[in-house]
Amino acid sequence: RLHPAIKGVWGAQSSGANIVSVNNKISGKNNAGPTPAFASYRKQQGFNSPIGERPVFAYTTALNHLLRKGSPQRLQVGDSSTVFWAEKRADMETSVVDIFGEPRKDDPDRQTRKVTALFKSIHHGRYVGGDADTRFFILGLAPNAARISVRFWQVTTVGELAGHIVRHFEDIRIVHRGKQPEYLPLFRLLASTAVQGKEKNIPPNLAGDTLRAILEGCSYPRTLLTASVQRCRAEREITYPRAALIKGCLNRATRYSNPDQKEELTVSLDPDNTNPGYRLGRLFAVLEKIQEEANPGINATIRDRYYGSASSTPVAVFPTLIKLSKHHLSKLENRGREVNFERLLGEIIDGIGDFPPHLSLEDQGRFAIGYYHQRQDFFKKREPETAQGENQ
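Given the sequence above, the corresponding C-alpha cells read:
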C-alpha cells in the first residue's frame, strides 16, 4: 500500500519522499459517496499503481544506496540529483561523477586526470575499454514537495556515453590562459550563468537540461545560450566559462540544424570568420585595447560603458567609438604600434560593411566570442615592433 521513503534527493523532505504515491486514501465519509479522483476504481494509495513487494523493496533500497551521503555514484547539479550505475561493475559508474563534479579539495587534479584518460580511451569516436558494450543507466531526480519527480531517464552503453562526454569537452574547448583549468567542471560552467556566480541563482531547470544534453549528445538548451549572453551583458565581462558555453551552444546548434555545414567557431582567433557579430566583437576588443594603451592604468574602459549596446545595437555606438579611437591612436608613443592598430582596424572593418542596427541572440553570442578571441590573442607574446610596424 505504501512504498518506503527515498532519502537523499536534494530539496525533498528530510524524512524522505516517494516516486510512487497517491495523495490520500478513502475515508469512511468518502466511502459512501462518489469515488475521489485519486482513488480510481476505489483503489487506495499504492494500489492505484500496483507493484510487487519484492521489486518495491529492490528499487527503494537501491536508490537509497545510490543517493546516500558520500555516494561516489551520485552527482548534484542544480536541483537535479543524478545517479549512475551499470548492469555490471564498470569504472564509468564513478568516473562520470569525478568528471562533472567539482574538483576535490584534497585532489584538485582528479577531474583533469579522469577526462584525460577518457580522451585517450577514445579512438575514432569509439570507446575502446573492455566494458564499451555494457549497458549504463542514468536517473535524474528532482524534488516536488512530498514526492520526487523523474527529471530524466536514460539507458545507454558505457562506450556511447564516453563518446558523448568527449564530444562535450571538445565542443566547449576554447583558448584560455595557462593557469586556468583545461577541462571546466559542470558546476563552474553553470555558475557562470547565474547572478553573482552563486549556485542558488542557477535557473532550476537549466542544470538538469544541460546535463541531459551532455549525456544524450544532443543540442544544449537554448536557455543556456540566453543565460550566458545575458550574464556577459549584465556584468560586461566575457569569462572563460561563459565563452566556452557560448561556443559550444552555437556550434552544436549549427551541427544539428545543418550537419553538412562546417562549425563556424574555432578554439582560438579566426581571422577568416566573416560573420558580422564575430567581426564586431573583434573590433570592439581592438578599440578597447587602443584605449588601454593610450591611457595606462585607466579604471574603466569602453567595455564598462558600451558593451551592452555594442553587442545588441552596433549602429548606435560604433561610429562614435571609431571616432574616439582616432584620438587614442594619436596619443600612442610607439609609432609602430599605431600603424599595426590601424592596419588591424582596417582588416576587420573591411569585412563588416554597414553596421547592423540589431544583432540576434546568436550573433550576440558570436560578438562575445569574437571579443574574447581577440582579447586572448593580445596576450600572446610577440617580438618587439619597429617604428615601421614590422617585427624585428
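Strands lie at 74-77, 80-86, 122-123, 126-127, 135-144, 147-157. Try to locate this feature in the C-alpha cell string yourself.
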